[in-house]
Specification:
It is a single chain. By secondary structure, this protein is an alpha/beta fold. It is built from 17 helices and 10 strands. It has helices spanning 12-45, 54-100, 102-108, 110-152, 154-201, 203-208, 212-265, 270-311, 370-377, 401-404, 421-425, 434-443, 447-452, 470-483, 501-514, 550-556, 559-568; strands at residues 331-341, 344-355, 359-363, 385-390, 393-395, 407-410, 489-493, 519-524, 535-540, 543-548. The protein starts with 11 loop residues before the first helix and ends in a 7-residue tail after the last helix. Among the domains are: 4-311, ABC transporter transmembrane region fold (Up-down Bundle); 417-487, P-loop containing nucleotide triphosphate hydrolases (Rossmann fold), CATH 3.40.50. It is elongated, with a radius of gyration of 35 Å. Strand 4 and strand 5 form a beta hairpin. The structure holds adenosine-5'-diphosphate and magnesium ion (MG). The site of adenosine-5'-diphosphate (ADP) has 12 residues, from strand 2 and helix 9.
Amino acid sequence: MFDKNIFKLNGIKRVFVLLVGLAISQAFFILGQAYFLALVISRLWSGQVFKNQINYILLFFLCYLCRHLLTFFRDRYLDAYARQQAKLLRTELLEKIFRMGPTLIQKHGTGNVTTMLIEGIHQVENYLQLILVKIINMTVIPIVLLVGIFILDWESGVVLFLVFPLIIIFMIILGYAAQSKADRQYRTFQILSNHFIDSLRGIDTLQVFGISKKYEKSIYQTSENFRKATISTLKVAILSTFALDFFTTLSVAIVAVLLGLRLLDGNILLFPALTTLILAPEYFLPIRDFASDYHATLDGKNAMAEMGTIISEQEAEIKQMPLQKWSAQGHAQFNQLSYRYEQKLALSDVSFSVSGFQKIGIVGMSGSGKSTLINLISGFFQPTQGEFKIDQVALKNLSQKDWQRQLAYIPQNPYIFHKTLRENLAFYHPEATDEQLMAVINQLDLQGLLDELPAGLDTVIGDGKRSLSGGQAQRVALARALLDSERKILLFDEPTAHLDIETELALKEKMLPLMANKLVFFATHRLHWMHEMDYILVLAQGRLVEAGTYDELRAKQGAFTQLIQEMRGHQHAKN
Ligand SMILES: Nc1ncnc2c1ncn2[C@@H]1O[C@H](COP(=O)(O)OP(=O)(O)O)[C@@H](O)[C@H]1O
Ligand SMILES: [Mg+2]
């Protein structure tokens, strides 16, 4: 019924106490309502004048009004509470996701996390709004009413008392069935959303390979599965609502028949009989209320449980040590780094050290672990084993603010935000002036792009608007790095891999001056860059197989030379 994460919510105890208090007062208003209504009717029945009953009628309306006002204000309060908690939950989730980064997304799936943040949060909000009050009403109100009924007429009390546990047992059985259906529904929904987002991201590839039609079928199949799961949940939901309504109506009818028979025999007076009869449906109302919304809230419960597992996901403890700004005297040691994706060991036992403003080339075939190493250096991944030493400070990982604030990362496909060119350029350095912007635009030959844009620097670019060519996007990314001169550490991950050779050479000319007086890590499999590097790390299958300067490595005639030959297509016969 409750997800245990509910008890971790802020201020939940107060909400519980408040709701129990409200439920008790509501029960008393229901009693009052029945009492005064029955009183007026039985008095009129016994021939009293209407005028004398006005006060009781007013009291009846007062009870009625108070009961519904309570509901109104309670719902408003709960709305606000649920909204606020949902907001907190979303913030907490987002923070967690940002802290854990790719590790978490990989584990749970992009689509899944996205759905959780958008859809899931709403479901949880809905769940909180409904479930708390229903459960508390269901436990509190019938008890108070039952006590009232026992006082009025213990025989009806016994009947109602005996029926209640039966209904509860019955509901629990149906609840289990519904839960397993709802679990299945939630799982198929997750599959659907992951599948959908994956297809959306890969749509270019799918189109190019002409398999988008086939994929269409598979999306259709997944959504069919979801539809079936939903319908079968609904079936159970409707069946159980029907069964419950049937049994509760039957119970009320039994009470009514028994009361009627006893009235005929003259064993009971009209007033207690009438009050009991009015109260009998009220006695079952909270449980029917609960049952009718129970299925609607199951997905909220599931979403909440899922969020709970994400929020409680283990994070490597990060001790933030103060780090110096990187300088010409800087020294960093990378000791026996290993990184493992779920089953695959992508880097093992990689050690090297760098100092000052060096340019470090990282080369290797595709899949050799270059990106993984760059991600470790950036602090984006936490090493499975090994540690870093920056200026003698030993660190388990590099997700240090002091470190990351000095980095600029330039990937193969830099992300161009759906924002103005100005905002895209000034990404690391929002205070950049127009002069500064124009200087980098000149320096990186972006004048051509700027001239094409109708509103100049304030033209919105990126996704769907004005897409940039690969070379332009890369220049924008470089300009970002260039604008913030505080960022002395540049991480390149195959920045030119998708550019043609002319564009690459033109860009290279612009890039090299940028790398002066910086610590540069440059991962690529385009080996002509290695002439410009001060030190080269050669990776093969996750291991550091060679390291040294260009001349040293060439003289060695080892892995680096072999790589050059393989890249040229002169595959040497293996000896
Ligand atoms: N998300 C991932 N999950 C599992 N294995 C991965 C993942 N990313 C990369 N790998 C594996 O780790 C190894 C190193 O990958 P990567 O660092 O991307 O190599 P490179 O950048 O040199 O091409 C490869 O064998 C690759 O298959
Ligand atoms: Mg890579």
